[in-house]
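SAMPLE LOG
Freezer: B-3
Tube label: C17
Construct: single chain, 276 aa
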Amino acid sequence: MYLAFNAPHDPRQAPERFLEMYPIDQIKLPPNYSPQHPYWKQIGNEPGVRDEGLAPYPRSEFAVKKHIQEYYAVISHLDEQVGKIVSHLESQKMLDNTYIIFTSDHGLAVGQHGLIGKQSLYDHSIRVPMIINGPNIKKGSVYNQDIYLQDIVPTTLDLANISIPNYVDFKSFYNLILNKDSNKTHDAIYGTYGCCPGNYFDFQRMIRKDNFKLMLFPKNKRIELYDLNQDPYEINNLAENSKYKPKVKDLYKELTILQKEMGDTLNLDMYFKNKL
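STRUCTURE (predicted):
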């Protein structure tokens, strides 16, 4: 069964008792809070782009805390509903042969990097929950591999002992979660973001590999590099640090290879060749 909740998508409306769990005066701003992203126009985050318009520019501390409060509240409300499902499965003695996969299609900035919505390739927007419970999965296991959300399809087919059709593009992480194989599911993860008719694919490109992330912003020819182990909030851009120039070049080369595999026709060299 596939069950899709609206939460925690906007409008983030939860019963009052869940809001009361998170008093505004006890909410802390995220470490990467900013009143406004310095390049919001060039990265495709203008006020008219969906939920970026839900808070004023610049983002006040109160507005961000209010968004965080509503975000936490609706997630807690969602958690209660998931709990009801799990309790029912348990009461019907179905948990022993049921796999539960809890995930989401994207995250939200809610004040991080001066942004509010999902419209970016920073980790707050692309790194989604991925929790799996079921037979033969060791309790408390934590994996640090990059996967795509769409990898769930071949994985569930594997779990059901159904052969994976050739037309399925993504990869199963069945062997990983059952501790049969620790090899990488993907060598690297590719990402793209665009908005606005006519310029849809030109705003952002990304590659995430071995806990480094390279982000490219063609509109203003900006390069950002983050060491996600040391800097999970993506605050310290290493792209201009001479020590990391080889890392930028290597990831850039791999990103262009992934572009071809994905059918992405944007010519990045036109924007960045002279900056590497």
